[in-house]
Amino acid sequence: MTETSDTSKNSPWRAIIAIIALTIAVAALGGLVSGGSQDPWYAALNKPPYNPPDQAFAIVWPVLYALMALGAIIVRLKAKSFARASAALGIFFTQLAVNLSWSWVFFGFQSPLIALIIIAILLALIILMIRAFARHSIISAILQVPYLGWVCFAAYLNGFIVYAN
């Protein structure tokens, strides 16, 4: 009986389901306030050069969320237990919360300056997450590089909006 409870305790399925569910929840909750050009406030802002069309965001973000979740799942599987992956997954879940807060602050509260501060924190967390993931799996760390690149680009977009508005 002890062997069965130890095995179920270290089963990755609960963590995998939590990773997938929370990633989808963050994507959905962020999408609730991210109206893009349909949002009159956002449409009226002066946008930076190279501001992508709304369709780009609709394509890029789901891919990035999938890569984030896949990287976290690989970390959990390689670690063989949640306890061994807790530092990396803790950063993962923290950056998800910060990612979500950016959407709500920028679009929901229409506060680009505070959102720029949040995006700086998010960038630091993504770098920490990549380093933590790399301790378990180089592949899981590499999967986060597009996310880091896109958030750097988002910081440029956000920074220009602060500057030009």
What does this structure look like?
It is a single chain. The protein is mostly helical and about 160 residues long. Helices cover about 80% and strands about 0% of the residues. It has eight helices and no strands. It has helices at about 1-10, 15-35, 40-45, 55-80, 80-110, 110-135, 140, 145-165. Helix 2 packs antiparallel against helix 4, helix 4 runs antiparallel to helix 5 and helix 5 runs antiparallel to helix 6. The longest helix has 27 residues, at about 80-110. It is elongated and about 50 Å long. The relative contact order is 0.14. Residues about 1-5 have low confidence and may be disordered.
Quick overview of this protein structure:
This protein is 82% helix and 0% strand. The chain is mainly alpha-helical and 165 residues long. Helix 2 runs parallel beside helix 5, helix 4 packs antiparallel against helix 5 and helix 6 packs antiparallel against helix 8 (145-164).
CA-based shape: elongated
Separation, N- and C-terminal Cα atoms: 64 Å
**Mind telling me the C-alpha Rg?**
18 Å
Q: List how many beta strands DSSP finds.
A: 0
- Average pLDDT taken over every residue: 94
Q: Figure out the total of helices.
A: 8
Main β-sheet description:
none
Q: Helix coverage percent of residues?
A: over 70%
What order do the helices and strands follow? HHHHHHHH
Structural class: mainly alpha
Strand-residue proportion: under 5%
Instruction: List segments where confidence is low: pLDDT < 50 over at least 5 consecutive residues.
Output: 1-6
Q: Can you give keywords for this protein?
A:
165 residues; mainly alpha; 8 helices; elongated
